[in-house]
């Protein structure tokens, strides 16, 4: 488990889905619930629904469109916002994420949420899990028009909040996003070893990963 040089960190940038929240909600919605409801509402089999949806998802992965509920509502002719509410009971905090957030706020770190989630998804999750009080800002990539995978997101973030990448920690469960942050110059990067509680650990490749938020606050004053 990585040991963080907290004296060298002023700003903590945190992803939401798979990092602070269990990714099971999102995986279940997009891979199981949405295909099921698509099949029912369009009068096709579940198998056919999956055959139609999975290539679409793959084609838009990593783009802002992939995270946009308005795009998918129009593309699939489905009320995606309303459908997401049908499985909202699955939205859950990852173990000890709130303990970690409270500790870094108490230590005087600047704490900012940066998520690719659409504002409607963000609002739905904040209704279920009280995250907002821990953060100075809650930023959706849709605010800037660029997904976190895009270098222009980081330029926009810098212009907006004026952080020092060399003195910042960023935690995210998506490797292409971590690589984008690294190219921008963010010095301290951590992946998440098991973003979905129902699936096993993932290979985080060149990135150190955290699986226990309690260990990250060791040495934090």
TrEMBL record:
GO terms for biological process: DNA repair. The keyword Hydrolase applies. Pfam families: Hydrolase. It comes from the Bacteria. One of its GO terms (cellular component) is cytosol. This is Putative hydrolase. GO terms for molecular function: metal ion binding; phosphoglycolate phosphatase activity. It comes from Pseudomonas batumici. Keywords: Hydrolase, Metal-binding. Gene3D superfamilies: HAD superfamily/HAD-like. InterPro entries: HAD-like_hydrolase_sf, HAD-like_sf, HAD-SF_hydro_IA, HAD_sf.
């Amino acid at each position: 488990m990585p040991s963080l040089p907290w004296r060298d960190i002023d700003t903590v940038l945190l992803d939401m889905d798979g990092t602070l929240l269990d990714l099971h909600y999102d995986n279940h919605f997009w891979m199981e619930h949405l295909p099921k409801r698509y099949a029912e509402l369009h009068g096709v089999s579940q198998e056919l629904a999956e055959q139609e949806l999975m290539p679409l998802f793959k084609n838009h992965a990593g783009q802002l469109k992939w995270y946009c509920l308005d795009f998918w509502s129009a593309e699939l002719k489905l009320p995606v916002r309303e459908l997401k509410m049908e499985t909202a009971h699955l939205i859950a905090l990852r173990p000890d994420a709130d303990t970690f957030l409270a500790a870094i706020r108490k230590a005087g770190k600047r704490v900012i949420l940066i998520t690719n989630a659409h504002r409607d998804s963000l609002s739905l999750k904040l209704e279920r899990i009280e995250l907002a009080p821990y953060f100075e800002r809650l930023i959706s990539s849709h605010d800037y028009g660029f997904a976190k995978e895009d270098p222009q997101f980081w330029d926009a973030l810098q212009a907006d909040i004026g952080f020092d990448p060399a003195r910042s920690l960023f935690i995210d469960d998506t490797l292409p996003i971590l690589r984008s942050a690294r190219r921008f110059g963010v010095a301290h990067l951590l992946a998440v070893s098991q973003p979905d509680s129902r699936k096993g650990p993932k290979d985080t490749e060149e990135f150190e990963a955290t699986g226990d938020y309690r260990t990250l606050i060791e040495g934090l004053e």
